[in-house]
């Protein structure tokens, strides 16, 4: 059995921009790190709408699906149910090294900001904050209301990294995949995951 030297939790929510999350996942797998994956019910809908992916609802089936989709090693991707409170991410005694919710809905943002822990994704984010682990929230919404902005400020003060999916265009992308790569590269940088998705400024 492989002893993974780093574990990253990734949450996929129902915000548009699911390819950002898929690209982040691909980067983590390529770096030979373990993934704890959390998929909201709305994210399953968006995965079908935007990526033509029929992701099974049962965690074990979804785990097999994503392992095959990303050509991951056995056990590299673990998928947990939305109310699976026995999952490692539910406790500060066994938190992942870092977590990213990508894309992150403003509803998920609000729930985390309020500390509600209504499902496993909320709880995993709460654990990351309380244990001082990196938490990245790739918020995908426009425009932002004052409620959204206040929730972002509250979470930033609590230690989260607020990273709206705002790609740069100075590198003159020719394919939409390059836009996904730009955002995913910034997320992976903050997660401490090596990658070659985008050129470095000045290189």
How many domains make up the 3D coordinates? 1
Task: Look at the helices and sheets and give the structural class.
Answer: alpha/beta
Corresponding CATH superfamily:
Flavin prenyltransferase-like
Poorly predicted runs are none
Q: What's the architecture, going by CATH?
A: 3-Layer(aba) Sandwich
Separation, N- and C-terminal Cα atoms: 39 Å
Shape: globular
Radius of gyration: 16 Å
Biggest β-sheet: count, sense, barrel?
A: 6 strands, parallel
Instruction: State the share of residues found in helices, binned by percent.
Output: 40-55%
Instruction: List the total number of helices.
Output: 7
As a percent range, the share of strand residues is: 15-25%
Strand-and-helix sequence, N→C? Answer: EHEHHEEHHEHEH
CATH topology-level name: Rossmann fold
Spatially, the strands of the biggest sheet line up as 3-2-1-4-5-6
CATH class: Alpha Beta
Q: What would the average pLDDT be, to the nearest integer? A: 96
Summarize the structure in words:
- This protein has helices at about 20-30, 40-50, 60-70, 105-115, 120-130, 145-160, 175-190; strands at about 5-10, 35-40, 75-80, 100-105, 135-140, 160.
- It has seven helices and six strands; from the N terminus they run βαβααββααβαβα.
- Helix content is about 40%, strand content about 15%.
- It has about 200 residues and is an alpha/beta fold.
- The chain has a six-stranded parallel beta sheet, sandwiched between helices.
- α4 packs across α6.
- The chain has one domain (about 5-190): 3-Layer(aba) Sandwich (Rossmann fold), CATH 3.40.50.1950.
- It is globular, with a radius of gyration of 16 Å.
């Amino acid at each position: 059995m492989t002893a993974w030297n780093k574990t990253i939790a990734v949450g996929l929510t129902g915000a548009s921009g699911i390819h950002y999350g898929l690209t982040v996942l691909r980067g983590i797998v390529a770096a030979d790190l373990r993934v704890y994956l959390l998929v909201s019910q709305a994210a399953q809908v968006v995965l079908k709408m935007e990526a033509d992916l029929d992701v099974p609802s049962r965690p074990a089936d979804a785990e097999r699906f994503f392992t095959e989709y990303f050509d991951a090693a056995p056990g590299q991707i673990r998928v947990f149910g939305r109310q699976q409170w026995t999952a490692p991410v539910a406790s500060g005694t066994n938190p992942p090294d870092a977590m990213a919710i990508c894309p992150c809905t403003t509803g998920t943002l609000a729930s985390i900001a309020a500390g509600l822990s209504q499902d496993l994704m909320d709880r995993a984010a709460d654990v990351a904050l309380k244990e001082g682990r990196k938490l990245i929230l790739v918020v995908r919404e426009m425009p932002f209301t004052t409620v959204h902005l206040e929730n972002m400020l509250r979470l930033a003060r609590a230690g989260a990294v607020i990273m709206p999916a705002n790609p740069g265009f100075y590198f003159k992308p020719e394919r939409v995949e390059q836009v996904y790569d730009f955002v995913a590269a910034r997320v992976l940088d903050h997660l401490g995951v090596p990658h070659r998705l985008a050129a470095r400024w000045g290189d």
